Amino acid sequence: MKCGFCNKVFFPPRFSCPVCRRKGTLEPYKLNGRGKIVTFAITHVAPNGFEDQVPYAIAIIELEEGPRLTAQVTDCDPNQVKIGDEVEMIFRRIGQEGSDGPIYYGYKARLISPYTLRANVK
Amino acid sequence: MRKVAIIGVSCTKFGELWDISFRQMIVEAGARAIEDAGIDGKQIDAMYVGNMSAGQFISQEHISSLIADHAGLVPIPCTRVEAACASGGLALRQGVIAVASGIHDIVVVGGIEKMTDIMTEQTTEALATAADQEWEAFVGATFPGLYAMMARRHMYEYGTTEEQMAMAAVKNHHNACFNPCAQYQMEITVDDVLKSAPVDSPLKLLDCSPITDGAACLILAPAEKAKQYTDTPILVAGTGQASDTLCLHDRSTLTGLRGTVDASRIAYKMAGVGPRDIGFAEVHDCFTIAEIMAIEDLGFCNKGEGGKATEEGETAIGGRIPINTSGGLKGKGHPVGATGIAQAVELVLQLRGEAGKRQVGGTEIGLCHNVGGSGGTVVVHVLKRGD
After folding, report:
1. Which residue among A45, A58, A108 sits closest to B141, beta carbon to beta carbon?
2. Residues of chain B found within 8 Å of residue A47, distances taken between Cβ atoms
3. Is A72 in the B-facing interface, judged by CB distances under 8 Å?
4. Which of A39, A50, A71 lies nearest to residue B153, judging by beta carbons?
5. Is residue B216 one of the residues assigned to a domain?
6. Is residue B125 part of a domain?
7. ipTM here
8. Are B220 and B1 in contact (CB under 8 A)?
9. CB-based contact B140 A107, cutoff 8 Å
């Protein structure tokens, strides 16, 4: 969302601009999905529903437009991840509600780098 | 607004208390505090109790009524306060405000958490509700993961090392050996910490505070009446509280807690003191990195130098600014809702000269620092000898 008054961009969407309170209305705004890793951790002890994914890297990513978000870094060896790495946000399966419940989706991050692309081609 | 004093304290043993229930713990803590204060139950005007998650841990809500009932204090007003891991500190603040305002005289402030009646996986999930469910937990971020991300950034920006973080855990275990209420009474080494199982890298098992049952209690009274009850009233010289964004990624900094800076500034101002005047402190070491960031944010050392200060022994008993003489959350245990109260109990025992082998010498002012979640709530109190 982007605030029509102060032009600040927010992700995830907010319902009230924390900068100018009610002076601006928040309008939908499309982000380009590219960002950089600001920090990350490698999760070894999985939360419920993520047991089959450990170890994985969980990161705080700063998008090009400014907002930051938290996401898994996928499609890579978590030990390859570094602060400053460029990533793109992609649509992925996040989990499932129980063994026969609905599958839910969301976003994860994938490293953008010629090295990663070469390594993934087997 | 009148000044407030603490006239009685108590703390149960902290640990995996399989055969002691929630109700037993709070009654034990309350009874011993009342005895310590030398008052009669009939003199109590109100209660505030900090508890994060009785609903998730023992499927019991409405604990304000349960506690008033089992403590034999019906019909006095009892209020349950919740701010994740800052529930205890926040309950203390609410009690202080009530007495300061004049609306109540003698107020009981307690904190309690019974965490071990469910499986560890469920406990971890309950604790993770302190994070943002839609934008942190949903995508796979764990509570230790959030602090691990702060640790990694702190290491990146300031060169803090895993060894320095480990030293905080070693110190706190050492201190806990002198605290009969502490969950752990065993020394550990830096090597033990570094070799312990990775949880969320760079944090390992021994960088993390444990799952604990326990309760603690304080009795508050107006300072002007405190001497009627005790020769060693301890004044609540300052109280401060701040909120911050729920999500770690929305914070203004990833290497410290702005909530700590904001809350402590308010508490310092109210008490008329600065960081240099504080003789010792109980800080919120839910993870080792949290202690390192706390001593920076509270002003006890420069930003980025928390690791070095710990390494050089400045925060040991006998050091420049003893931190977590009780053993901290790491050594003493972390029954979530009780922690904020237990921190104040330690300050009172130290200021009264009753801390035994972990006594800090020659100090009249202490500080306690209690954090909710990854920093969304911070409560700070400054306590001073009242005589």
Report:
1. A58
2. 124-125, 128, 137, 140, 142
3. yes
4. A39
5. yes
6. no
7. 0.91
8. no
9. no
Helices (H) then strands (E): counts for chain A? 1, 7
Can you list the domains of chain A with their CATH numbers? 1-30 (no CATH), 34-120 (2.40.50)
Angle, CA of B243, B248 and B196, to the nearest 5°: 115
Number of domains in chain B: 2
Size of interface A-B (CB pairs under 8 A): 92
Tell whether B367 and B296 lie within a shared domain.
yes
Averaged over successive runs of 10 residues, the pLDDT of chain A (122 residues) comes to 85 82 82 95 93 95 95 94 95 86 92 62 42
Q: What is the pLDDT of residue A115?
A: 58
C-alpha distance from residue A35 to each of A42, A117, B140 (Å): 19, 17, 19
Which residues on chain A are in Cβ contact (under 8 Å) with B247?
A: 70
Q: What is the rounded average pLDDT of the residues B66-77?
A: 94
| Known active-site residue B334 | yes
Exposure pattern of B320-350 as b/e (b: 16+ CB <10 Å)? ebbbbbbbbbbbbbbbbbbbbbbbbbbbbbb
Q: What pLDDT digit, counting tens, does each position of B129-163 carry? A: 999 999 999 999 999 999 999 999 999 999 999 99
- pLDDT at residue A121, rounded to an integer: 43
Cβ-based neighbours of A61, under 8 Å, separated by 6 or more: A35, A36, A37, A38, A68, A69, A70, A71, A87, A89, A109, B249
Q: Is there a contact between B136 and A70 if contact means CB atoms under 8 Å apart?
A: yes
Percentages (nearest 5) of helix, strand, coil residues in chain B: 45, 20, 35
Catalytic choice (B78, B85, B208, B368):
B85
Domain that holds residue B25: 4-119+212-234
Averaged pLDDT score across all residues of chain B: 96
- Could you say which of B140, B153, B202 has the minimum Cβ distance to residue A72? B140
Share of chain B above pLDDT 90, in %: 96
The per-residue pLDDT for range B294-340, each reduced to its tens digit, is: 999 999 999 999 999 999 999 999 999 999 999 999 999 999 999 99
Residues B245 and B367 in one domain: yes
Chain B residues whose C-beta sits inside 8 Å of any chain A C-beta: 121, 124-125, 128, 134-142, 144-145, 148-153, 156, 197-203, 247-250, 254
B247 is catalytic: no
Residues from chain A that touch B203, judged by Cβ atoms under 8 A, are 41
Render pLDDT for B185-219 as a digit per residue (tens, 0 to 9).
999 999 999 999 999 999 999 999 999 999 999 99
pTM attached to this predicted model: 0.94
Residue B47 sits in a domain of what CATH number?
Answer: 3.40.47.10
Chain-chain contact of A42 with B201 (C-beta, under 8 angstroms):
yes
Are residue B358 and residue B218 in the same domain, yes or no? no
Cβ distance A47 to B248 less than 8 Å, yes or no, reads: no
